[in-house]
Specification:
The protein is an alpha+beta fold. It has twelve helices and 35 strands.
């Protein structure tokens, strides 16, 4: 007897064979194909879509496949197929043709063009229900990217003659979804206010009405995740994970943006090693070994790893090793991370062509000036990456993407750079008030004028003692070089009659250039031309009254900037140094002005940043004349807290006349653990030391006292704008100085 299971399997197999034979018996050879119902699409095209040819064997399964292929063409609303007497009959009903696509409800031309860019159904295309669903999803995605999360998208069809239609998108975009609150959960380690300063998204504040960062934007949220991760990576948390980010609805207009952070224990640099090809000279890389020793036992930092790769790049390129590959291998032992930097020399390939796409506004020469390699050069992956970063740093584009493809020749490469431009214009306004008075400012700025890369910046500021207007134009790549050319036109009225006994009206311009002289060192040179009228108070001394009148001054200005900060904003390490000099060429007073400023940053412990800065300036006449009243120096209020601005130093009667020389030393340190649970508040302690001396016409007015003060400062981001307080205690002063224990300033930009 047969086993029951075996019997069952035999029955199933027999049925399968039977069905297969029956299908084959039903199969027919196609001798003729007839197409019916078509109007626009030719019979040959329909047959092509069907995939059937004469003399093909067609079964029921084959017919089902024909149906799928015809529906897949997206030309037909309905399809039927059958075969009789070796004749294949295909009956189709074509989708209507879209004559016009109409968008209603969107008033902004910018938003409308953005919405249209991703829509598949266009004029003169075939209508398709599936594509319509996809288009509605695309429109919704585009609107969400702009903050319109509550948009309602409806469609309607207006039937026309000849199987044509008008497709209408009825779009009610609604109000933008505001970010009411930003929260961080998990093992976040840092205070919310610190993490908020890292990301781009911002909580909604009414004074930020020009900022788009206060609205939900999925692309920006993704970028925020990367910013948070990089921040933790630079703080030693190698295994940090941003587990999730999501928007939680608070009401019909507002969301809470939540980031879930998992930061595992901090890791520290262990042994760092550089592995070179055998033909590379190790002596060229000795500076790296010193840097490795310095980093050992320091908290892991992605920034330092990237800095090492940059140093490798510089050395390697200088030694003419163009075709290299640098890889990083990490090995974690306990709380130490050992890193090997492996350098491999690749077979040389050459750049056949560099293509740039998406720069509809920005001129191509502006972009190519940022590319470190050129067509015909050996391909270098490090310089390629640096070129992309240079283009990103222009801040003209929302996205910069690059790809490297094989060229036509065996050893050639083609580089494609795809760009997405963004708005580069700014309008700003600001108001401020404090113990020193009130001020108003506003301006217009365009960072990429007519796509040329030229910066145009105009602004006007008004206070109780000063009115100043300025127009600044800068071409950073003059005649396609790495040199800039800068033009500045300004006019100001300074009224110091009540404090220093004079009033000044100045109009002038400057023309100059600057360029990178060495790594991180920029040199600038300019000519400055000023016309000035000085009016002196009737109660001033005779020496001051003699300076009343009109002046013309022409200066040769030189400027040196050496910037080694780890980042321009939220700086935690490095230093910045600046020296400037104005040399009189054609001048009524022949005043030589020098200034040197140095500031160093150091993170002494977690989230604490201490700074030490030094300033010294001089203003002296090389012809032996008295220095003009408006060219005399005063210690800036921010450099000597605890003293009233402009009321420190030599005094002639009731007037503070400034000096020929000023100097200051300032030390600050943040106190991150004070008010730890209070959001949007930073506390800093400071110590200021300064002096002002030198009076050309009467040295007896000078004082020898060194001014100094200590105190606490508070920065508070309030609902109406940033508020700063300083509480200072003068330690040493001159009898004529006016002290100021408490100072505050409240202001905002919008």
């Amino acid at each position: 007897m047969f086993n029951p299971i075996y019997r069952f399997r035999l029955i199933i197999l027999s049925l399968f064979i039977f069905i297969l034979l029956m299908n084959n018996l039903k199969a027919e050879i196609v001798n003729q194909i007839i197409v019916e119902g078509n109007n626009r699409v030719s019979p040959d095209t329909v047959i092509m879509f069907s995939g059937v040819s004469l003399n093909d064997d067609l079964s029921e399964d084959n017919l089902n496949q024909v149906l799928k292929q015809l529906y897949g063409s997206n030309f037909f609303e309905s399809v039927s197929v059958k075969i009789e007497n070796n004749i294949l009959k295909i009956n189709v009903k074509e989708y209507p043709i879209i004559q016009n696509v109409i968008y209603e409800g969107i008033k902004s031309s910018e938003i409308l063009e953005d919405v249209k860019s991703e829509v598949n159904l266009k004029s003169r295309s075939s209508f398709n229900e599936i594509l319509l669903i996809k288009d509605k999803e695309s429109i919704s995605t585009k609107l969400k990217a702009r903050g319109y999360y509550f948009a309602d998208i409806d469609t309607s069809v207006e039937e026309l003659s000849d199987n044509k239609i008008n497709l209408i998108f009825n779009i009610a975009i609604g109000k933008k979804a505001k970010i009411k609150k930003i929260s961080f959960i998990g093992n976040k380690i840092y205070k919310d206010k610190k993490l908020k300063s890292i990301i781009l998204s911002e909580e909604y504040k009414f004074w930020k009405f020009l900022s788009g960062k206060k609205f939900l934007n999925e692309a920006m949220i993704d970028y925020d995740r990367r910013l948070l991760k990089n921040f933790y990576l630079n703080k030693g948390f190698f295994n940090v994970v941003i587990k999730s980010s999501f928007a939680k609805m608070i009401n019909d207009q507002e969301f809470e943006l939540v980031f879930n952070i998992e930061a595992n224990p901090k890791l520290y640099f262990g042994k760092l090693k550089l592995n070179l090809p055998t033909d590379f000279s190790e002596s060229n890389y000795e500076s790296l070994n010193k840097f490795f020793n310095k980093l050992e036992n320091e908290p892991y930092s992605l920034y330092n790893v990237e800095n090492i790769l940059e140093k490798i790049e510089i050395i390697t390129v200088n030694e003419q090793y163009e075709s290299i590959k640098a890889t990083v291998k990490e090995n974690i032992v306990d709380n130490k991370i050992n890193i090997s930097f492996n350098i491999e020399e690749n077979e040389k390939t050459f750049i056949e062509r560099i293509n740039i796409f998406g720069n509809n506004i920005t001129k191509e020469t502006v972009i190519r000036n940022q590319i470190e390699i050129d067509e015909g050069d050996p391909f270098n992956s490090i310089l390629y990456t640096k070129s992309l970063n240079n283009i990103k740093s222009l801040n003209f584009f929302d996205s910069v993407e690059g790809e490297v493809l094989d060229g036509k020749e065996y050893n050639s490469k083609i580089i494609n750079i795809s760009l997405k431009e963004k708005a580069t214009g700014e309008i700003f306004a600001g108001v401020g008030t404090g113990t020193g008075g009130s001020n108003v400012s506003f301006g217009v700025k365009e960072n990429n004028y007519l796509g040329s890369g030229v910066l145009v910046d105009s602004n006007l500021s008004l206070s109780e003692t000063k009115v100043k207007g300025k127009l600044f134009i800068s071409n950073p790549n003059y005649k396609n070089s790495d040199k800039s050319i800068n033009l500045s036109i300004e006019s100001s009225v300074v009224d110091q009659l009540s404090t220093s006994g004079y009033k000044s009206n100045v109009t002038g311009f400057s023309l100059g250039t600057d360029f990178e002289y060495l790594d991180d060192l920029r040199f600038g040179i300019s000519t400055k031309n000023l016309i000035e009228k000085i009016t002196v108070d009737s109660k001033a001394s005779n020496k001051q009254k003699k300076q009343e009148g009109n002046y013309f001054d022409n200066f040769l200005g030189m400027d040196f900037n050496y910037d080694k900060r780890n980042q321009k904003f939220e700086t935690t390490s490095g230093f910045f140094s600046n020296y400037s000099v104005d040399i009189p060429i054609l001048s009524d007073t022949n005043t030589l002005m020098n200034s040197y400023n140095y500031k160093i940053f150091k993170e002494l412990y977690e989230d604490n940043v201490s700074t030490l800065s030094f300033l010294i300036s001089s203003s002296t006449s090389i012809s032996g004349d008295n220095v003009k009243l408006s060219e005399r120096l005063y210690i800036p209020a921010r450099k000597l807290r605890g003293f009233e601005a402009g009321k420190v130093g030599p005094k002639d009667g009731s007037d503070y006349v400034g000096g020929n020389y000023i100097s200051s030393i300032n030390a600050t340190s943040t106190l991150p653990y004070f008010l730890e649970n209070v959001q949007n508040v930073d506390i800093v302690m400071f110590a200021d030391v300064g002096n002002i001396w030198g009076v050309d016409y009467n040295s007896s007015l000078e004082t020898d006292e060194i001014r100094s003060s200590v105190g606490l400062g508070l920065d508070w981001l309030t609902a109406i704008g940033p508020l700063t307080f300083s509480l200072a205690h003068p330690i040493t002063k001159a009898d004529s100085d006016v002290t100021e224990t408490f100072r505050f300033n409240l202001g905002t930009s919008f």
